[in-house]
């Protein structure tokens, strides 16, 4: 049935385009991957938006740089790079690469994509606060920044900075259909329902084993799990914890995420302006009870802000308590969270019990995220539970720490302003990538935690489903890769 449907899709596309063939068309209906994803496109698969991560996970749009498991930059469409002066990086463009429309990749075309991203309004997140000037010299793309930036190669790994053919850029829109360089050609987008991709027979790397990909967007978690259980899907992302027990355990993989469930305490006003009461709250929180009771063991108790998705974070220095807990004595606090993540209201209920057992009097506030974010950022609550991504688009946690805990941070729910924290973050930000930077990041983490402004409780995992017979799918904590050239269903 699926083969007939896939074949009819290809025939329709050929009729509409007037083409007699397309990359991979001869294999349509055989060896295809049926993929079910959580969130439908929010911006019509505009690669300058968060939809870029879908294009990356389908191996259709590629960047100059990739990140390895440790978060270090590796060659992709750029074969290498160097820093020619404190402000300028030179990237050598890979030869013999063709876009899906047949045009060759050149340094000028790569620069065209980067300039479009830098000039976009709004800019891709990865370029917030960054001024890029992009020029070309021979087969090299020169990327200059207004101030020294040791993370330029990391930034260029963001899926939002994918390199597309010239025809992708028409007016104010960016169209990824048939304009990438990856192992699969995006041939059709069906609104928010699905997408179709075909194998790229001219791919510059190893040829994909699968003939194509059929994508469906299914926001309902129960329906996604059912698609795996009934054999309607080969690969399913983001299976809810509540559905895991209903599935064959051999079809589920738990992937540690760079996402921490954290309790933010308001340090500017109210009860938690007192460091002693912040220490009392920290002593009251039992992360293990949350992992076992709410997440059914499918999460990791937090030792810090950063978790097992960043293996090097386990090398953090010891952090002795600096403030003794003060007695709560019936202190009234407001504890808030949101409903958009199914587990958080339950986490809030458990935390309420834990804090009340420690002597606090707790008022619980739970709303949809769209209706609570502004209040949280303005410091309307004493405590706020947030599931927070700790590694943003650059693959480096400094941006998250600056956003959440610096005096000028744009997402500073704790209302924290501490000169020691700012100094530690500034040191981490200017340290070159590598082991030295990681040490500086862990020192900054310790400085933040010593303020008591945030209590990390657990690190989340994502459950990925692969039907029996499926091999080669990626289990990527950063959710940048999913379908690879090795992915296929037997």
TrEMBL record:
It comes from the Bacteria. Keywords: Signal. Pfam families: SBP_bac_5. Residues 1-21 form the signal peptide. Residues 73-410 form the Solute-binding protein family domain. The keyword Signal applies. PROSITE patterns: PROKAR_LIPOPROTEIN. The keyword Signal applies. InterPro entries: Peptide/Ni-bd, SBP_5, SBP_5_dom. This is Peptide/nickel transport system substrate-binding protein. The lineage of its organism: Bacteria, Bacillati, Actinomycetota, Actinomycetes, Streptosporangiales.
